[in-house]
Amino acid sequence: MTGRRSRPLLAPRVKTIVYGGTAAFLAAAFMIFPKDAYEASIRGLSMWWEVVFPSLLPFFILSELLIGFGVVTFIGVLLEPVMRPLFRVPGSGGFVWAVGMASGFPAGARMTARLRKDKKISRIQAERLVSFSNASNPVFILGAVAIGFFHDPRLGLLLAVCHYGGSFITGLAMRFYGSEKNNADSAGTFSLKQAFRLMHRERIKDTRPLGKILGDAVQSAVSTLLMIGGFIILFSVLNQLLTVIHVSQLFAVVLTIILSIFHIPNELSPALISGMFEITIGSRLASSTDGVPLFYQVMAVSFILGFNGFSVQAQVASILAETDIRFKPFFAARILHGITAAVLSAFLFGPLYINRTAEAVSVPGGGEEGTTLMTQLYGWIMQHGGAITFIFLALYLCLQISRLDFAQKKRCT
């Protein structure tokens, strides 16, 4: 009896030892290598300040407003006949998927969690939806990766098709995950009148005045982005410390064996390891690895983008922790998405890059017009992102101060 009772206690104790030991080890590494930790934190902060915050903020604010005004419900009814048969999620999942692709991670997870909090989707449906709605935005793929890292805008279409195609295939695969009771997965019918009726009902249900809705949207968006910034800085430092203390080299030995099985150059192992922690660093390393054919570089970047990196996964885990949505299905989907995107890049490298490059050579200036808008948008964000971040952080601070003053006055009265 004593042995049986002690077994369940073993796992929590092991977790305590692992968590405590890891935290102590990292704290010691911080003190031994303060310069490397400082430089890595500055890089992470700069990326969040100049790119991540200004690019995600509009989508986060708009998503809150669209949910509050009932637009998501309206779109959900219209997309119900499509999303249910394909992915076994409600029609509102189509809106979440679109926003997730347009704004980038972790917007899809954030909107999924919001729908779950509002009880618009079940837990199983939320776990299906978050598995394929968390994607990189096209500005990052076409602007930062294709142009900034590879210096070749023609790679943008290939990377985007592989990434979003992998997301679609992952969604189709995750439709077989879990089961619903009471025929909850049956498709509805297209009804514009019903969609408008439910939208109006949703808006009436929210009794907040317009100014309160706007303030809450800004506050919610900024608080989420502050959390995201913390994770970006943390994993930037963690990745640097693991490199400095040569722990990454141990992972590289194991990864080299796996890469050799698939006849992929071993030189890509440092990039893949870095990409497993943070996609920006990993993608940049993969694109600049010397002596590796472009074909394998694109495969590595496609896997990194699909896997999302532990930094993004930690952000998603933090968002999902506020609900009953489990993280394990999301993690399994990330592995599937990464592998699927890499395989797609291998098959589509010829049709979407080699052939298009040959056609562009025969037509002077051809093939680059489609990426001009994304290039300009990425450049504009890089130029003005810091100012946008400063303005909205100041606005967020003012909102917090006004709410504290209001709460204090209410207590006094």
UniProtKB/TrEMBL annotation:
Keyword presence, Manganese? no
> What sections of the protein cross the membrane?
16-34, 55-79, 91-109, 129-150, 156-177, 213-238, 244-264, 294-314, 335-354, 377-399
Pfam families with a match to the protein in the record: Gate (PF07670)
Keyword set for this entry? Membrane, Transmembrane, Transmembrane helix
Q: Does the keyword Hydrolase apply?
A: no
Q: Which InterPro entries match?
A: Gate_dom, Spore_IM_YlbJ
UniProt domain Nucleoside transporter/FeoB GTPase Gate: residue ranges: 51-148
Q: What is this protein called?
A: Sporulation integral membrane protein YlbJ
